[in-house]
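Researcher: Good morning. I'm working through a list of sequences from a screen, and I'd like to move beyond sequence-only analysis. For each chain I'm collecting a predicted structure so we can compare shapes side by side. This is the next one on the list. No need for commentary yet; just the structure.
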Amino acid sequence: MSQDEYRRDVLPGHADFQLPRPAPVQRVNGKRPIPERTPPAPAARERATEDAADVWDRRVADGLAFLRRRLAGAYEVDEFGFDPELTDTVFQPILKLLYRDWFRTEVLGIENVPADGGGLVVGNHSGTLALDALMLTVAMRDKHPAERHLRLLGADLVFRMPVMSELARAAGATVACNPDAERLMTSGQLVGVFPEGFKGIGKRFSERYKLQRFGRGGFVSAALRTGTPIIPVAIVGAEEIYPILADVKPLARLLGIPYFPVTPTFPLLGPLGLVPLPSKWLIQFCEPIPTAHLTEFADDPLVVYNLADQVRETIQATLHELLEKRPDAFGP
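Model: Good morning. Structure tokens for this chain:
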């Protein structure tokens, strides 16, 4: 139907009605012109720039305020030398780079850790250097709803080293002895202990994820005396960061250290050999074991040994389960 017929037959009385005609396409050299894109509104760009500037302004202001407090001595430490502000402002952000980006750590069962009050967290130890203990403190601070601090018990060797001793105490660690552990738990703190000690972190790669002996169970008697729950924790991933192929015992005795490890990268690559391999980590907190009903048996060797064995078996069984969940040690 033509336009004239449409006006005559369909739209009678509207002889002057004209159908809209499409505007002719303007061409340049026989080609359609590229439509111009509207740039972002200047106000939106300015707001984004101002927001980014505000973030950096706050960071600089917070950093200057932190330095001012440190220089003025306006901060608190407890009787063990623990400095919460330094830990949360300096230590934890550095460790989180390893925890989140390098080791891609996943945490399971954090609900098994009490929201308040004392507790004894008992874990397996491995990895040549005690990075598993440090990652455990980050997991507790990062995943626990109450963002609790974990107070580690360290070996005497740590506190005999001039710089390491001050750093360890500022981060909340103290010497691995029952009196200190009991004082911390009585005051409502979470205490972390690794009963395998140097036997755990210094074992060879061929013995990975096989728990070593737990000693005489001193950690159990400390929990019994204070009536605090014991929370077993299994850590998978630390065994692969520095796989120990051999231990040069004569050199270790000469240097006064428990072992001198030979790994695929150390001492072959020198200082670069200290960079941990990026293994995938899984940390699982198991159900707590109550001890409040056993306080009168704190000095009973049989009760202490049986409870320590129960903790050890729980961790070992959980390690096997986690290894099945993580088929690839360096997977995503």
